[in-house]
Fold:
Amino acid sequence: MNANQFLQTSRTVTFLIQKSKKSVPSFDSWYLKTVVNPWSSDTVMTWAKDSRNKIEKQGDIDYFSTFIVTLVISYFHRQDISIIPKGDRDALWININKLIKYVKPKMTEEAFDNSVLRIERKWVANSLPDWELLHAFSYIYSKHYRVCDSLQKHLELETEKDIPDPVEMDLGARKSRQVSYISLKEGTVNRFQHVRFMSDHAFKVDDKDLSRKLEEARKDNGTVEGALSFHAAFTQSMFKLQGVYFPSIFMYDLNGNCIYNGGTEFADQASKHMYWRSIGEQVISLSPAVVVWSLESWIRDYKNKDPKLHFRDREIIGERLSVTVIDKNIQAGEVHWEIKRDTEGVPTLGKPIVSMDRSKILLENNVLAPIVDAFVFLSAQQSSFKQKC
Structure:
């Protein structure tokens, strides 16, 4: 009932906009650019429209669900191991301790320590088999929100603060899906904790020249080159101001508007696997044009080829500040600075080193694999829809 209600109500958004088009300057060109053209080749938005018509004229949408348990051992989806074979109902009742005893002898100690079981009840509409249902609803809401936000900007108005942001809706949908992770090492159930910090509007940067340059550069954040230029200046400035830089991720639409930003704190390698998988899901829900990842990190020695030597035990041989950018076409760019510290620990940055070598960047940044998979998935959905048309 809620699914049907959502699909019917969401469809009324564009109806109401069209109904008020006489009060919107240059409505036809704005609507064509914002709704008609981008949605006409969008698999999910077309499905939402067709589903609303089916609900009103024929009846309910057909849904089914599956229970999925996979062993996550890395950032790459292709390396996931299915734990419950399709149709094996007896495996639903397997004890976690028995499962751990079963898989542990088959894994290296480091792989075992860094692995998690991902457990999900997945709902799918028969007419949209490639999408998890609530994930699709988050995507639909995000698209409608961006249209309304664009209309407000077009009318030189501000979007009302009490309207939920797509990120909030996506987190709510994820909570409803009850995706859980079990750490093999700890044998405990883990979930993400999201904390929102409100910005301090009283904060001002004293360097007016820097503020002007950053504001001007911000307009091009919808491209790899533009986002790399802006975040190189931003990250370098923040590091010099604070002497430290916390891991940050940003997502931008084609117009350079920031549609998501946040930071993170990792407990261990397994938590990194979980975090980046969730970022990949957010990329699918929010459909950004560009994703930016910036952080301060250790450089470790890989000369020792001992397979028993854990990553965390490898010698730290350097420190680096870096910004990595990837867009929906899997184009990438990166800039990094080597960090040197004096005897008192005060840091200084070396010269910026820029690379636009996509293959090298993706090879050295495995954390981006879920983002790449998400962009490939979205592109495939568009291509599949065009072929059907």
